[in-house]
Amino acid sequence: MSAEQRLTWRRRLFAFVVASVGAAAAAAISFAMTVYDAANPKPVPLAAPGQPIDTGRWTITFRDARTGSIPPTGIKPSTPKKLLMVEFDLDNRSASTSNAFLRLFTLEPPVPNLPPPAFYLARDRSVAGGLQPDMPERMIAAWEWPQAVPVPQQLRLKVTSQIHKRRDNLYGAPGWFDRDPAAVVTLAVGSGP
């Protein structure tokens, strides 16, 4: 083997070693950052009632929470029910009609065996369907509260957020995808009809 061939092999070996060390260092740093982020999560921001919360797809402003026995439709149910209602303003910031607000916020901590809330439009007391873009609506979420469980004095709601991607990693199609919670809101629970 000539001296020039040995020199090229040495260069290749040196490049391979440098690339391997660089890749190993990058993997170790990435792993360390992931472990650190998991051990030290960012606190979820707190929002006050009446403060708009930007969730990406929606802007939501919580107004108040109350208990009652008559649903927002105003029609008294045939069997007595205990309802927990949250009134809020909601604005669809996406480009199309959507009813994805059905899972926009959850009770924190969750109440076991609590059915999901029904959503109503406050302006005409009807069940809410899809919301049009850039047309804010005042809405009411109503949970049918279990009779055996006392209603809390303070209601804590965790608001989720979403991000729009022009192309997702799986299908290559546009869509809205969940990300970290946007905020936590605490509302005082009043009483109503």
Oligomer: single chain
**Name of the top-level CATH class of the largest domain:** Mainly Beta
Number of domains: 2
Alpha carbon gyration radius: 26 Å
Mean pLDDT: 90
Q: How many strands, which pairing sense, and closed or not: the largest β-sheet?
A: 10 strands, mixed
Give me the CATH fold name of the largest domain.
Answer: Immunoglobulin-like
- Strand proportion: 35-45%
Query: What is the structural class?
Result: alpha+beta
Describe the structure.
- The chain has 1 helix and 10 strands; from the N terminus they run αββββββββββ.
- The chain has one helix spanning 3-39; strands at 46-47, 53-54, 58-68, 82-92, 105-107, 118-121, 126-127, 137-145, 154-165, 175-191.
- Strands 1, 2, 3, 4, 5, 6, 7, 8, 9 and 10 form a 10-stranded mixed β-sheet that branches.
- Strand 6 (118-121) and strand 7 (126-127) form a beta hairpin.
- The longest helix is centred in the N-terminal third of the chain and has 37 residues, at 3-39.
- The chain is elongated and about 100 Å long.
